Amino acid sequence: MRIGLLTEGGYPYVSGDARLWCDRLVRGLGQHEFDIYALSRSERQEDEGWIQLPPQVSRVRTAPLWTVEDDGVVYGRRARRRFADAYGELAAAVCEGPGALDGSALGGGAGPHDGPAASGGVEADRFGSALYALGELARDEGGLAGALRSEGAVRALERACRAPGALRTARTARVPDLLAFASHVERALRPLSLDWYEGDGLDSVDLCHATAGGTAALPGLLARHFAGVPLLVTEYGVQLRAHYLASATVGESPAVRALLAGFHGRLAAEVYRAAALITPGNTHARRWQERCGADRAKLRTVYPGMEASRFADVGESAEGEGSGCADPDTLVWVGRIEPAKDLISLLHSFAEIRKEEPKTRLRIVGAPADGPEGTTYLAHCRALAAQLFPDEAEGVHAVGDNPVSFEEIGGPEVPSLAEAYASGAVVVLSSVVEGFPISLVEAMFCGRATVSTDVGAVVEVIGGTGLVVPPRNPRALAEACVTLLRDPERRERLGAAARARALELFTVEQNVAAFHDIYLEIVSHSPVRRVVVDEEGEPLPFGVPAEAHVPGRWTEVRPMPAGRPRWAAGAPVRATVPVPAGEGAR
Hints:
With 586 residues, the protein is an alpha/beta fold. The chain has 20 helices and 14 strands. 41% of the residues lie in helices and 12% in strands. It has a 6-stranded parallel β-sheet with strand order 3-2-1-4-5-6. It has a 6-stranded parallel β-sheet with strand order 9-8-7-10-11-12, sandwiched between helices. Strands 13-14 form a two-stranded antiparallel sheet. 45% of the residues are buried.
Protein backbone atom coordinates (compact mmCIF):
# COMPACT_ATOMS: atom_id res chain seq x y z
CA MET A 1 0.00 0.00 0.00
CA ARG A 2 1.24 3.51 -0.78
CA ILE A 3 0.55 6.01 2.00
CA GLY A 4 0.77 9.80 1.68
CA LEU A 5 1.73 10.92 5.21
CA LEU A 6 0.77 14.59 5.75
CA THR A 7 2.53 16.49 8.54
CA GLU A 8 2.79 20.07 9.78
CA GLY A 9 5.71 21.29 11.88
CA GLY A 10 7.00 17.81 12.69
CA TYR A 11 8.16 14.64 10.97
CA PRO A 12 10.58 14.24 9.23
CA TYR A 13 12.26 17.27 10.81
CA VAL A 14 14.53 16.80 13.82
CA SER A 15 12.28 18.97 16.00
CA GLY A 16 8.54 19.44 16.02
CA ASP A 17 5.17 17.91 16.82
CA ALA A 18 4.41 14.18 16.61
CA ARG A 19 7.93 13.43 15.35
CA LEU A 20 8.51 10.33 17.47
CA TRP A 21 5.02 8.95 16.88
CA CYS A 22 5.29 9.30 13.10
CA ASP A 23 8.75 7.72 13.03
CA ARG A 24 7.58 4.73 15.06
CA LEU A 25 4.52 4.31 12.84
CA VAL A 26 6.52 4.39 9.59
CA ARG A 27 9.18 2.01 10.91
CA GLY A 28 6.56 -0.34 12.32
CA LEU A 29 4.73 -0.61 8.96
CA GLY A 30 7.64 -1.71 6.83
CA GLN A 31 5.36 -3.63 4.46
CA HIS A 32 3.92 -0.33 3.16
CA GLU A 33 5.47 2.48 1.11
CA PHE A 34 5.35 6.01 2.51
CA ASP A 35 5.46 9.35 0.70
CA ILE A 36 5.90 12.19 3.19
CA TYR A 37 4.40 15.62 2.49
CA ALA A 38 5.64 17.98 5.20
CA LEU A 39 4.80 21.61 6.01
CA SER A 40 7.53 23.37 8.00
CA ARG A 41 6.85 26.11 10.55
CA SER A 42 10.17 27.95 10.81
CA GLU A 43 13.50 28.51 9.14
CA ARG A 44 15.20 27.06 12.21
CA GLN A 45 13.26 23.84 11.82
CA GLU A 46 14.39 23.48 8.23
CA ASP A 47 17.99 24.29 9.11
CA GLU A 48 18.04 21.54 11.74
CA GLY A 49 17.33 19.01 8.99
CA TRP A 50 15.61 15.62 9.00
CA ILE A 51 15.94 12.56 11.12
CA GLN A 52 17.30 9.41 9.49
CA LEU A 53 14.46 7.91 7.46
CA PRO A 54 13.77 4.18 7.00
CA PRO A 55 13.90 2.59 3.53
CA GLN A 56 10.09 2.38 3.22
CA VAL A 57 10.02 6.19 2.80
CA SER A 58 10.21 6.56 -0.96
CA ARG A 59 10.03 10.35 -1.19
CA VAL A 60 9.80 13.51 0.89
CA ARG A 61 8.27 16.76 -0.37
CA THR A 62 8.29 19.87 1.80
CA ALA A 63 6.82 23.38 1.75
CA PRO A 64 7.28 26.29 4.18
CA LEU A 65 4.48 27.95 6.12
CA TRP A 66 6.79 30.52 7.71
CA THR A 67 7.82 32.61 4.73
CA VAL A 68 5.83 34.61 2.19
CA GLU A 69 6.83 33.95 -1.39
CA ASP A 70 5.45 35.80 -4.39
CA ASP A 71 4.28 33.17 -6.85
CA GLY A 72 4.35 35.73 -9.66
CA VAL A 73 0.88 34.71 -10.83
CA VAL A 74 -1.15 37.50 -12.44
CA TYR A 75 -4.86 36.76 -12.83
CA GLY A 76 -6.86 37.75 -15.85
CA ARG A 77 -10.38 39.14 -15.63
CA ARG A 78 -12.07 35.73 -15.54
CA ALA A 79 -9.68 34.37 -12.88
CA ARG A 80 -10.18 37.49 -10.73
CA ARG A 81 -13.91 36.99 -10.91
CA ARG A 82 -13.57 33.32 -9.97
CA PHE A 83 -11.41 34.29 -6.99
CA ALA A 84 -13.77 37.02 -5.85
CA ASP A 85 -16.74 34.65 -5.96
CA ALA A 86 -14.95 31.80 -4.14
CA TYR A 87 -13.25 33.95 -1.49
CA GLY A 88 -16.44 35.90 -0.92
CA GLU A 89 -18.33 32.66 -0.28
CA LEU A 90 -15.64 31.44 2.10
CA ALA A 91 -15.64 34.72 4.01
CA ALA A 92 -19.45 34.71 4.18
CA ALA A 93 -19.46 31.18 5.59
CA VAL A 94 -16.96 32.25 8.27
CA CYS A 95 -18.84 35.42 9.20
CA GLU A 96 -22.39 34.13 9.02
CA GLY A 97 -23.89 33.30 12.39
CA PRO A 98 -24.87 31.29 14.20
CA GLY A 99 -22.51 28.55 13.11
CA ALA A 100 -18.78 28.47 13.29
CA LEU A 101 -17.15 28.38 16.66
CA ASP A 102 -16.59 32.06 17.20
CA GLY A 103 -15.62 31.51 20.83
CA SER A 104 -17.75 33.41 23.33
CA ALA A 105 -14.93 33.02 25.81
CA LEU A 106 -12.68 34.76 23.28
CA GLY A 107 -14.98 37.68 22.61
CA GLY A 108 -17.47 36.20 20.15
CA GLY A 109 -21.12 35.34 20.26
CA ALA A 110 -21.67 31.58 20.11
CA GLY A 111 -19.95 29.31 22.59
CA PRO A 112 -17.42 26.56 21.91
CA HIS A 113 -20.08 23.91 22.31
CA ASP A 114 -22.24 25.38 19.57
CA GLY A 115 -19.93 24.00 16.86
CA PRO A 116 -20.61 23.78 13.14
CA ALA A 117 -22.94 20.86 13.71
CA ALA A 118 -25.18 23.01 15.87
CA SER A 119 -26.25 25.26 12.98
CA GLY A 120 -26.93 22.62 10.38
CA GLY A 121 -24.81 21.89 7.36
CA VAL A 122 -25.60 24.96 5.22
CA GLU A 123 -22.62 27.11 6.25
CA ALA A 124 -20.33 24.08 6.39
CA ASP A 125 -21.27 23.08 2.82
CA ARG A 126 -20.80 26.69 1.73
CA PHE A 127 -17.33 26.80 3.26
CA GLY A 128 -16.30 23.47 1.72
CA SER A 129 -17.53 24.44 -1.76
CA ALA A 130 -15.63 27.74 -1.57
CA LEU A 131 -12.50 25.98 -0.33
CA TYR A 132 -12.47 23.53 -3.24
CA ALA A 133 -13.23 26.32 -5.71
CA LEU A 134 -10.10 28.11 -4.48
CA GLY A 135 -8.15 24.88 -4.84
CA GLU A 136 -9.32 24.46 -8.44
CA LEU A 137 -8.41 28.06 -9.18
CA ALA A 138 -4.92 27.58 -7.74
CA ARG A 139 -4.46 24.46 -9.88
CA ASP A 140 -5.65 26.19 -13.05
CA GLU A 141 -3.76 29.48 -12.57
CA GLY A 142 -0.63 28.31 -10.74
CA GLY A 143 -1.18 29.70 -7.25
CA LEU A 144 -3.22 31.78 -4.81
CA ALA A 145 -0.62 33.62 -2.72
CA GLY A 146 -0.93 36.98 -4.45
CA ALA A 147 -4.71 36.85 -4.64
CA LEU A 148 -5.09 35.98 -0.94
CA ARG A 149 -3.00 39.05 -0.02
CA SER A 150 -4.73 41.35 -2.48
CA GLU A 151 -6.96 44.32 -1.83
CA GLY A 152 -9.80 42.36 -3.41
CA ALA A 153 -9.55 39.72 -0.68
CA VAL A 154 -9.80 42.35 2.06
CA ARG A 155 -12.80 43.97 0.35
CA ALA A 156 -14.57 40.62 0.07
CA LEU A 157 -13.94 40.01 3.74
CA GLU A 158 -15.26 43.45 4.65
CA ARG A 159 -18.47 42.85 2.68
CA ALA A 160 -18.98 39.55 4.48
CA CYS A 161 -18.50 41.19 7.89
CA ARG A 162 -21.00 43.95 7.07
CA ALA A 163 -23.61 41.63 5.52
CA PRO A 164 -26.97 41.04 7.28
CA GLY A 165 -26.78 38.04 9.58
CA ALA A 166 -23.03 38.29 10.19
CA LEU A 167 -21.71 37.57 13.65
CA ARG A 168 -22.11 40.50 16.00
CA THR A 169 -18.41 40.60 16.84
CA ALA A 170 -17.39 40.30 13.18
CA ARG A 171 -19.42 43.42 12.37
CA THR A 172 -17.11 45.44 14.62
CA ALA A 173 -14.00 44.57 12.55
CA ARG A 174 -11.99 47.52 11.28
CA VAL A 175 -9.38 47.65 8.51
CA PRO A 176 -6.44 46.54 10.73
CA ASP A 177 -8.55 43.60 11.92
CA LEU A 178 -9.40 42.62 8.35
CA LEU A 179 -5.75 42.81 7.30
CA ALA A 180 -4.67 40.66 10.25
CA PHE A 181 -7.30 38.02 9.52
CA ALA A 182 -6.57 38.00 5.76
CA SER A 183 -2.88 37.45 6.53
CA HIS A 184 -3.71 34.47 8.74
CA VAL A 185 -6.01 32.95 6.10
CA GLU A 186 -3.32 33.34 3.44
CA ARG A 187 -0.88 31.38 5.57
CA ALA A 188 -3.41 28.70 6.49
CA LEU A 189 -4.42 28.16 2.85
CA ARG A 190 -0.92 27.97 1.36
CA PRO A 191 -1.25 24.20 0.77
CA LEU A 192 -3.91 24.99 -1.86
CA SER A 193 -1.19 26.47 -4.09
CA LEU A 194 1.22 23.51 -3.92
CA ASP A 195 1.93 21.24 -6.87
CA TRP A 196 1.39 18.06 -4.86
CA TYR A 197 -1.84 16.86 -6.44
CA GLU A 198 -0.99 15.74 -9.98
CA GLY A 199 1.76 13.90 -11.84
CA ASP A 200 2.57 11.03 -9.49
CA GLY A 201 1.87 13.12 -6.40
CA LEU A 202 -0.93 12.64 -3.91
CA ASP A 203 -3.18 11.56 -6.78
CA SER A 204 -1.19 8.30 -7.00
CA VAL A 205 -1.29 7.21 -3.34
CA ASP A 206 -3.80 4.71 -1.96
CA LEU A 207 -4.47 6.65 1.21
CA CYS A 208 -3.72 10.07 2.70
CA HIS A 209 -2.96 10.03 6.43
CA ALA A 210 -2.99 13.50 8.02
CA THR A 211 -1.20 13.52 11.37
CA ALA A 212 -3.19 16.57 12.51
CA GLY A 213 -6.30 18.47 11.57
CA GLY A 214 -6.42 22.00 10.20
CA THR A 215 -3.77 23.08 7.70
CA ALA A 216 -1.99 19.71 7.78
CA ALA A 217 -5.12 18.01 6.42
CA LEU A 218 -5.67 20.47 3.54
CA PRO A 219 -3.52 18.49 1.04
CA GLY A 220 -5.60 15.44 1.91
CA LEU A 221 -8.82 17.35 1.24
CA LEU A 222 -7.60 18.36 -2.21
CA ALA A 223 -6.33 14.86 -3.02
CA ARG A 224 -9.77 13.54 -2.12
CA HIS A 225 -11.49 16.27 -4.16
CA PHE A 226 -9.30 15.94 -7.27
CA ALA A 227 -8.53 12.21 -7.31
CA GLY A 228 -10.88 10.49 -4.85
CA VAL A 229 -8.06 9.48 -2.48
CA PRO A 230 -9.49 8.48 0.94
CA LEU A 231 -8.39 10.55 3.93
CA LEU A 232 -7.52 9.38 7.46
CA VAL A 233 -7.12 12.07 10.13
CA THR A 234 -5.28 11.49 13.41
CA GLU A 235 -5.45 14.10 16.17
CA TYR A 236 -3.58 13.47 19.40
CA GLY A 237 -4.12 17.13 20.19
CA VAL A 238 -7.26 18.67 18.67
CA GLN A 239 -6.13 21.60 16.51
CA LEU A 240 -9.25 23.63 17.19
CA ARG A 241 -8.76 23.31 20.95
CA ALA A 242 -5.11 24.32 20.55
CA HIS A 243 -6.23 27.38 18.60
CA TYR A 244 -8.61 28.43 21.37
CA LEU A 245 -5.93 28.04 24.05
CA ALA A 246 -3.38 29.97 22.00
CA SER A 247 -5.72 32.79 21.00
CA ALA A 248 -6.62 33.45 24.63
CA THR A 249 -3.03 34.59 25.23
CA VAL A 250 -2.56 36.60 22.02
CA GLY A 251 -3.27 40.31 22.02
CA GLU A 252 -5.66 40.29 19.05
CA SER A 253 -8.90 42.25 19.00
CA PRO A 254 -12.19 40.46 19.74
CA ALA A 255 -13.18 40.77 16.06
CA VAL A 256 -10.01 39.03 14.86
CA ARG A 257 -10.36 36.29 17.45
CA ALA A 258 -13.98 35.70 16.46
CA LEU A 259 -13.11 35.54 12.76
CA LEU A 260 -10.19 33.18 13.38
CA ALA A 261 -12.36 30.94 15.54
CA GLY A 262 -15.00 30.89 12.81
CA PHE A 263 -12.45 30.02 10.13
CA HIS A 264 -10.82 27.23 12.13
CA GLY A 265 -14.21 25.89 13.21
CA ARG A 266 -15.40 25.65 9.59
CA LEU A 267 -12.12 24.09 8.48
CA ALA A 268 -12.30 21.49 11.25
CA ALA A 269 -15.88 20.65 10.29
CA GLU A 270 -14.90 20.16 6.65
CA VAL A 271 -11.92 17.96 7.56
CA TYR A 272 -14.11 15.78 9.77
CA ARG A 273 -16.82 15.58 7.10
CA ALA A 274 -14.42 14.52 4.35
CA ALA A 275 -12.38 12.02 6.38
CA ALA A 276 -13.08 8.33 5.90
CA LEU A 277 -12.06 7.73 9.52
CA ILE A 278 -10.85 9.94 12.38
CA THR A 279 -8.57 8.59 15.09
CA PRO A 280 -8.47 10.70 18.27
CA GLY A 281 -5.81 9.83 20.79
CA ASN A 282 -8.18 9.75 23.77
CA THR A 283 -11.78 10.29 24.81
CA HIS A 284 -11.11 13.92 25.72
CA ALA A 285 -10.09 14.65 22.12
CA ARG A 286 -12.97 12.55 20.85
CA ARG A 287 -15.54 14.70 22.67
CA TRP A 288 -14.07 17.84 21.12
CA GLN A 289 -14.24 16.30 17.66
CA GLU A 290 -17.87 15.27 18.10
CA ARG A 291 -18.85 18.77 19.22
CA CYS A 292 -17.03 20.22 16.21
CA GLY A 293 -19.09 18.19 13.76
CA ALA A 294 -17.36 14.79 13.54
CA ASP A 295 -19.65 11.83 12.84
CA ARG A 296 -19.47 9.46 15.79
CA ALA A 297 -19.46 6.47 13.42
CA LYS A 298 -16.15 7.65 11.94
CA LEU A 299 -14.31 7.93 15.26
CA ARG A 300 -11.82 5.27 16.41
CA THR A 301 -9.77 5.98 19.51
CA VAL A 302 -6.12 4.94 19.05
CA TYR A 303 -3.83 5.66 21.99
CA PRO A 304 -0.34 7.02 21.26
CA GLY A 305 2.36 4.37 21.18
CA MET A 306 5.32 4.81 23.53
CA GLU A 307 8.59 2.93 23.97
CA ALA A 308 8.07 0.70 26.98
CA SER A 309 11.55 -0.83 26.68
CA ARG A 310 13.18 2.41 27.91
CA PHE A 311 11.55 1.88 31.29
CA ALA A 312 11.70 -1.92 31.47
CA ASP A 313 14.52 -2.12 34.03
CA VAL A 314 12.84 0.30 36.43
CA GLY A 315 9.42 -1.29 35.95
CA GLU A 316 10.65 -4.84 36.46
CA SER A 317 12.60 -3.74 39.53
CA ALA A 318 9.45 -2.21 40.97
CA GLU A 319 7.57 -5.48 40.37
CA GLY A 320 10.25 -7.60 41.97
CA GLU A 321 11.27 -5.47 44.93
CA GLY A 322 8.27 -3.39 45.89
CA SER A 323 9.36 0.19 45.36
CA GLY A 324 12.67 -0.82 43.76
CA CYS A 325 15.43 1.76 44.23
CA ALA A 326 12.97 4.56 45.01
CA ASP A 327 13.42 6.80 48.03
CA PRO A 328 10.22 6.24 50.03
CA ASP A 329 10.24 9.88 51.15
CA THR A 330 10.61 11.48 47.71
CA LEU A 331 7.99 12.90 45.35
CA VAL A 332 8.91 13.34 41.69
CA TRP A 333 7.49 15.70 39.08
CA VAL A 334 8.65 15.30 35.45
CA GLY A 335 7.74 17.48 32.50
CA ARG A 336 8.22 20.75 30.67
CA ILE A 337 8.22 23.74 33.02
CA GLU A 338 5.52 26.21 31.97
CA PRO A 339 2.48 27.90 33.57
CA ALA A 340 0.03 25.19 32.38
CA LYS A 341 1.82 22.68 34.62
CA ASP A 342 0.92 24.76 37.70
CA LEU A 343 4.08 24.13 39.70
CA ILE A 344 3.04 27.02 41.95
CA SER A 345 0.16 24.92 43.32
CA LEU A 346 2.51 21.94 43.63
CA LEU A 347 4.95 23.95 45.77
CA HIS A 348 2.16 25.20 48.03
CA SER A 349 0.88 21.64 48.28
CA PHE A 350 4.37 20.44 49.21
CA ALA A 351 4.40 22.95 52.08
CA GLU A 352 1.31 21.18 53.47
CA ILE A 353 2.92 17.77 52.92
CA ARG A 354 6.00 18.80 54.89
CA LYS A 355 3.83 19.63 57.87
CA GLU A 356 2.60 16.03 57.95
CA GLU A 357 5.77 14.27 56.69
CA PRO A 358 8.82 16.45 57.50
CA LYS A 359 11.30 14.10 55.80
CA THR A 360 9.65 14.36 52.39
CA ARG A 361 11.59 15.82 49.48
CA LEU A 362 10.37 17.04 46.08
CA ARG A 363 12.38 16.63 42.87
CA ILE A 364 11.23 18.76 39.92
CA VAL A 365 12.82 17.32 36.79
CA GLY A 366 12.50 19.14 33.49
CA ALA A 367 13.61 22.03 31.31
CA PRO A 368 11.71 25.30 30.82
CA ALA A 369 9.47 25.62 27.77
CA ASP A 370 10.90 27.44 24.76
CA GLY A 371 10.78 31.20 24.85
CA PRO A 372 11.02 33.77 27.63
CA GLU A 373 7.80 32.64 29.30
CA GLY A 374 9.25 29.27 30.32
CA THR A 375 12.46 30.80 31.68
CA THR A 376 10.53 33.43 33.64
CA TYR A 377 8.19 30.82 35.09
CA LEU A 378 11.11 28.63 36.21
CA ALA A 379 12.71 31.62 37.95
CA HIS A 380 9.40 32.34 39.69
CA CYS A 381 9.15 28.73 40.89
CA ARG A 382 12.73 28.77 42.20
CA ALA A 383 12.07 32.00 44.10
CA LEU A 384 8.87 30.58 45.62
CA ALA A 385 10.65 27.38 46.67
CA ALA A 386 13.39 29.41 48.37
CA GLN A 387 10.73 31.48 50.16
CA LEU A 388 8.59 28.54 51.30
CA PHE A 389 11.46 26.25 52.27
CA PRO A 390 14.51 28.00 53.71
CA ASP A 391 17.66 25.88 53.50
CA GLU A 392 17.69 23.33 56.31
CA ALA A 393 20.57 21.73 58.20
CA GLU A 394 20.68 18.91 60.72
CA GLY A 395 23.03 20.76 63.05
CA VAL A 396 24.45 24.22 63.72
CA HIS A 397 27.71 23.35 61.97
CA ALA A 398 26.19 21.60 58.90
CA VAL A 399 25.47 23.13 55.53
CA GLY A 400 21.77 23.40 54.84
CA ASP A 401 19.93 22.49 51.66
CA ASN A 402 16.47 22.97 50.23
CA PRO A 403 13.99 20.04 50.19
CA VAL A 404 12.93 21.11 46.68
CA SER A 405 15.41 20.51 43.87
CA PHE A 406 15.20 21.63 40.23
CA GLU A 407 17.04 19.29 37.87
CA GLU A 408 17.28 18.43 34.18
CA ILE A 409 17.62 15.11 32.39
CA GLY A 410 21.26 14.41 31.60
CA GLY A 411 22.67 15.97 34.76
CA PRO A 412 24.77 14.09 37.32
CA GLU A 413 21.79 13.38 39.56
CA VAL A 414 19.36 12.40 36.78
CA PRO A 415 21.30 10.95 33.85
CA SER A 416 18.21 9.42 32.18
CA LEU A 417 14.45 9.78 32.15
CA ALA A 418 13.91 6.31 33.62
CA GLU A 419 16.17 7.15 36.55
CA ALA A 420 14.14 10.29 37.22
CA TYR A 421 11.03 8.19 37.78
CA ALA A 422 13.03 5.59 39.72
CA SER A 423 14.24 8.20 42.20
CA GLY A 424 10.90 8.66 43.94
CA ALA A 425 8.10 6.65 45.49
CA VAL A 426 5.25 8.78 44.08
CA VAL A 427 5.04 10.66 40.76
CA VAL A 428 2.94 13.84 40.82
CA LEU A 429 1.17 15.72 38.02
CA SER A 430 -0.26 19.13 38.92
CA SER A 431 -1.36 20.51 35.52
CA VAL A 432 -4.35 22.76 34.91
CA VAL A 433 -4.25 22.07 31.14
CA GLU A 434 -3.23 18.72 29.71
CA GLY A 435 -3.92 16.71 26.59
CA PHE A 436 -2.54 13.19 26.69
CA PRO A 437 -0.33 13.02 29.84
CA ILE A 438 2.86 11.42 28.53
CA SER A 439 4.69 11.74 31.85
CA LEU A 440 1.97 9.72 33.57
CA VAL A 441 2.27 6.89 31.06
CA GLU A 442 6.04 6.86 31.54
CA ALA A 443 5.56 6.68 35.30
CA MET A 444 3.13 3.79 34.78
CA PHE A 445 5.70 1.93 32.66
CA CYS A 446 8.07 2.36 35.63
CA GLY A 447 5.53 0.84 38.03
CA ARG A 448 5.11 4.02 40.06
CA ALA A 449 2.06 5.12 42.02
CA THR A 450 0.77 8.50 40.84
CA VAL A 451 -1.19 11.48 42.12
CA SER A 452 -2.68 13.64 39.33
CA THR A 453 -5.07 16.49 38.73
CA ASP A 454 -8.28 15.75 36.85
CA VAL A 455 -7.53 17.46 33.52
CA GLY A 456 -7.48 16.35 29.88
CA ALA A 457 -7.21 12.58 29.45
CA VAL A 458 -5.74 11.91 32.91
CA VAL A 459 -8.63 9.86 34.27
CA GLU A 460 -8.84 7.85 31.05
CA VAL A 461 -5.12 7.07 31.16
CA ILE A 462 -4.93 6.25 34.87
CA GLY A 463 -8.07 4.11 34.86
CA GLY A 464 -8.16 3.59 38.63
CA THR A 465 -4.45 2.84 39.06
CA GLY A 466 -3.65 6.17 40.73
CA LEU A 467 -5.18 8.96 42.80
CA VAL A 468 -6.85 11.90 41.03
CA VAL A 469 -7.72 15.26 42.62
CA PRO A 470 -9.26 18.51 41.34
CA PRO A 471 -6.88 20.99 39.66
CA ARG A 472 -5.78 24.16 41.49
CA ASN A 473 -6.44 22.52 44.86
CA PRO A 474 -3.15 22.30 46.80
CA ARG A 475 -4.80 20.85 49.90
CA ALA A 476 -6.40 17.94 48.01
CA LEU A 477 -3.10 17.27 46.23
CA ALA A 478 -1.27 17.25 49.57
CA GLU A 479 -3.73 14.87 51.21
CA ALA A 480 -3.46 12.38 48.34
CA CYS A 481 0.35 12.46 48.42
CA VAL A 482 0.46 11.99 52.19
CA THR A 483 -1.92 9.03 51.90
CA LEU A 484 0.44 7.21 49.52
CA LEU A 485 3.61 8.21 51.37
CA ARG A 486 2.23 6.55 54.50
CA ASP A 487 1.06 3.36 52.76
CA PRO A 488 3.90 1.53 50.93
CA GLU A 489 1.77 -1.57 50.27
CA ARG A 490 -0.86 0.50 48.50
CA ARG A 491 1.84 2.23 46.47
CA GLU A 492 3.14 -1.15 45.38
CA ARG A 493 -0.32 -2.41 44.34
CA LEU A 494 -1.14 0.77 42.41
CA GLY A 495 2.25 0.77 40.71
CA ALA A 496 1.91 -2.84 39.57
CA ALA A 497 -1.61 -2.21 38.25
CA ALA A 498 -0.45 0.94 36.47
CA ARG A 499 2.41 -0.89 34.74
CA ALA A 500 0.09 -3.68 33.58
CA ARG A 501 -2.39 -1.14 32.18
CA ALA A 502 0.31 0.82 30.34
CA LEU A 503 1.77 -2.31 28.76
CA GLU A 504 -1.68 -3.31 27.55
CA LEU A 505 -2.82 0.02 26.09
CA PHE A 506 0.02 2.45 25.42
CA THR A 507 2.84 0.60 23.66
CA VAL A 508 4.19 1.21 20.16
CA GLU A 509 3.11 -2.29 19.15
CA GLN A 510 -0.60 -1.72 19.86
CA ASN A 511 -0.49 1.64 18.07
CA VAL A 512 1.12 0.20 14.91
CA ALA A 513 -1.23 -2.80 14.84
CA ALA A 514 -4.26 -0.52 15.13
CA PHE A 515 -3.19 1.65 12.18
CA HIS A 516 -2.31 -1.38 10.08
CA ASP A 517 -5.90 -2.63 10.45
CA ILE A 518 -7.33 0.85 9.84
CA TYR A 519 -5.33 1.30 6.61
CA LEU A 520 -6.63 -1.98 5.21
CA GLU A 521 -10.20 -1.22 6.28
CA ILE A 522 -10.23 2.20 4.59
CA VAL A 523 -8.71 0.98 1.33
CA SER A 524 -10.99 -2.05 1.17
CA HIS A 525 -14.06 0.23 1.46
CA SER A 526 -12.82 2.91 -0.93
CA PRO A 527 -14.08 3.16 -4.51
CA VAL A 528 -11.78 1.69 -7.14
CA ARG A 529 -10.14 4.64 -8.92
CA ARG A 530 -8.48 2.52 -11.63
CA VAL A 531 -9.99 -0.09 -13.92
CA VAL A 532 -8.67 -3.64 -13.46
CA VAL A 533 -9.01 -5.96 -16.46
CA ASP A 534 -8.20 -9.56 -17.28
CA GLU A 535 -6.07 -10.86 -20.17
CA GLU A 536 -8.85 -10.19 -22.71
CA GLY A 537 -9.40 -6.64 -21.50
CA GLU A 538 -12.65 -7.47 -19.71
CA PRO A 539 -13.34 -5.86 -16.31
CA LEU A 540 -12.28 -8.06 -13.41
CA PRO A 541 -14.91 -8.21 -10.62
CA PHE A 542 -13.45 -7.55 -7.16
CA GLY A 543 -10.14 -6.86 -8.89
CA VAL A 544 -8.73 -4.62 -6.18
CA PRO A 545 -9.25 -6.18 -2.76
CA ALA A 546 -7.26 -4.79 0.14
CA GLU A 547 -4.83 -7.68 -0.13
CA ALA A 548 -3.85 -6.62 -3.65
CA HIS A 549 -2.09 -3.61 -2.14
CA VAL A 550 0.24 -5.81 -0.09
CA PRO A 551 3.27 -7.10 -2.06
CA GLY A 552 3.35 -10.88 -2.40
CA ARG A 553 3.37 -13.83 -4.78
CA TRP A 554 -0.41 -13.62 -5.20
CA THR A 555 -0.19 -10.30 -7.08
CA GLU A 556 1.43 -9.47 -10.39
CA VAL A 557 1.17 -6.79 -13.07
CA ARG A 558 -0.67 -7.74 -16.27
CA PRO A 559 -0.22 -5.70 -19.44
CA MET A 560 -3.26 -4.02 -20.94
CA PRO A 561 -4.36 -5.53 -24.31
CA ALA A 562 -3.76 -3.24 -27.30
CA GLY A 563 -7.41 -3.18 -28.34
CA ARG A 564 -8.85 -2.21 -24.96
CA PRO A 565 -12.40 -0.89 -24.86
CA ARG A 566 -13.17 2.73 -24.08
CA TRP A 567 -14.27 2.03 -20.50
CA ALA A 568 -10.80 0.63 -19.74
CA ALA A 569 -8.80 3.68 -20.74
CA GLY A 570 -6.88 3.93 -17.45
CA ALA A 571 -3.40 2.64 -16.76
CA PRO A 572 -3.01 -1.08 -15.98
CA VAL A 573 -2.96 -2.07 -12.33
CA ARG A 574 -2.33 -5.19 -10.31
CA ALA A 575 -4.83 -8.02 -10.59
CA THR A 576 -5.21 -11.03 -8.31
CA VAL A 577 -4.38 -14.31 -10.06
CA PRO A 578 -4.84 -17.90 -8.89
CA VAL A 579 -1.94 -19.46 -7.03
CA PRO A 580 -0.43 -22.42 -8.98
CA ALA A 581 -1.26 -25.85 -7.62
CA GLY A 582 1.19 -27.08 -5.06
CA GLU A 583 2.15 -23.64 -3.79
CA GLY A 584 -0.76 -23.47 -1.33
CA ALA A 585 -0.64 -21.22 1.71
CA ARG A 586 2.87 -20.51 2.90
